[in-house]
Amino acid sequence: MAEKKSDFASLFSFWNDLTRAQADFLKNSLRNQVFPAGKLIHRSDGGCRGIMSVISGALRVYCVSEEGREVTLYRVDSGEICILSASCLMDSLVFDVLIESLEETEVCLIPSTALHKVEVENPLVELYIYKNATEKFSEVLWTVQQILFMKIDQRLALALHEEMNRQKNNILSITHEDLAKQIGSVREVVSKTLKYLEEEGLVRLGRSKIEILDKEGLLHLS
Known about the structure:
The protein is of the alpha+beta class. Helices cover 44% and strands 25% of the residues. α5 (152-167) packs across α8. The longest helix has 27 residues, at 123-149.
């Protein structure tokens, strides 16, 4: 890993607010980890990893209902920070979530024990942690709002738009099951709704692929 301060600041934006001693201490604590696709890397009752900066790949932060239905709260993509894996550092914010790697994912991790030592010395680091957590909480509220107030076809259309922007292609490599997890539904309902969108000429369905035929039509739905 590079030794330049600016390199660490690109991973953790609070780095430039550290003293030299704090920066050296965290630098010696940092470690890179690679997770295979589909790996469950955090659960609220399984300990506290620390803050992870995603170098490549993507993470999914989600929760599971009592019936076993998964609801994706948000993604953490390359260049972003996963803060809820350090939820033990936030006494007034409690998140009962799970985190998994969507694909092979490399992260740079600051362990919670090391981060806590610096956090109590440097209020700017504590401010960063809570600011990032509240921003993610806004994304969680947006997800809940969609589930409560949007119809299934609207939520699905919005998810397809997000995937199209993320994959930068109108032919999406995604399964019905993955879409169901993303919008907080079940695969059967998603498949039925996709079939309806296909009949309306908005999409074309294939094996683990969905082609967007009418972007403007989907925009009108969402």
